Amino acid sequence: MIEQSGESPAGTAHESANEFSTGTTIVALGGDDGVVLGADARVSLGGRFVTNRSARKVEPIGERAAVAFSGGVSDAQSVVDQLRTERQLYELDHGRPMPTDALATVTGRLIRTGQFRSIGLLLGGVDESAVYWIDGGGGVMRDAYAASGSGMQLAYGALEGAYEPDRPVSDLQPLAADALAAAAERDVASGDGMTITTITDEGLSERRTNALGREALAGADGASPAPETADEEVA
């Protein structure tokens, strides 16, 4: 399993008191036909005052990958924008989709060379049903499943006894929802609703709910296509 690095968990020690933060819990699980990423929906100011209860913390990077983020909102949005540009440039140069491992390498480099030390990222892609954890120092680690954010220990506790490799994404979706609910039970920076994003060879889809857990997921409307990536044309 992934071990926590010496860096402070994203959304805690690196935040200033007036920074909008998704202290949060995020999870990513690899299956035999794709990957599932999940995140709660709470945003707070300095980890003490809830400012948003319906935030989106899972963003598509093209049609075959997505990233979930915790920590400073502005930093996370900047990284997502840069990753989308890097993907476009790669595909223009190579004429094929950017592999998930290459995208993970680029993500780690952005964290190491930029000013994005207040975030934690989980990256998932469908080419190898890969899950990557990128820490606050830019370290990149691949695993079958991962959790990050202020509620990661609680999420891992829920996943370790339930996750099995090579399961279909339909089985992984409720596991991700349960892990988020378990984290929110004790972690004050996590809660409210959730986003569950699924990536398969057929594309990206997501479900958003106003509550946590598999019951909320089961009661949600059917999966809808993830929002179109706001890619701009790269010269």
- Under CATH, the homologous superfamily reads Aminohydrolase, N-terminal nucleophile (Ntn) domain
Query: What is the first-to-last residue Cα distance?
Result: 41 Å
Number of domains: 1
By CATH, the architecture is named: 4-Layer Sandwich
- Might you state the CATH topology name? Glutamine Phosphoribosylpyrophosphate, subunit 1, domain 1
Using DSSP, what is the number of strands? Answer: 14
**Averaging pLDDT over every residue, what do you get?**
86
The largest sheet, given as strand count, sense and whether it forms a barrel, is: 8 strands, antiparallel
**CATH class (first level) name:** Alpha Beta
> Proportion of β residues?
25-35%
What does the radius of gyration come to?
Answer: 16 Å
Helix content: 25-40%
Shape: globular
GO biological process, one term: proteolysis involved in protein catabolic process
Keywords: Cytoplasm, Hydrolase, Protease, Proteasome, Threonine protease
Organism: Halovivax ruber (strain DSM 18193 / JCM 13892 / XH-70)
GO molecular function, one term: threonine-type endopeptidase activity
Describe this structure in words.
- The protein is an alpha+beta fold and 235 residues long.
- The protein has one domain: Aminohydrolase, N-terminal nucleophile (Ntn) domain (Glutamine Phosphoribosylpyrophosphate, subunit 1, domain 1, 4-Layer Sandwich), CATH 3.60.20.10.
- 29% of the residues lie in helices and 30% in strands.
- It has five helices and 14 strands.
- Strands 1, 4, 5, 6, 7, 8, 9 and 10 form an eight-stranded antiparallel β-sheet that branches. Strands 11-2-3-12-13-14 form a six-stranded antiparallel β-sheet, with helices on one face.
- A hairpin with a 4-residue loop joins strand 2 and strand 3 (35-40).
- Helix 1 crosses helix 2.
- The longest helix has 22 residues, at 73-94.
- The model is unreliable at 1-18 and 229-235 (pLDDT under 50).
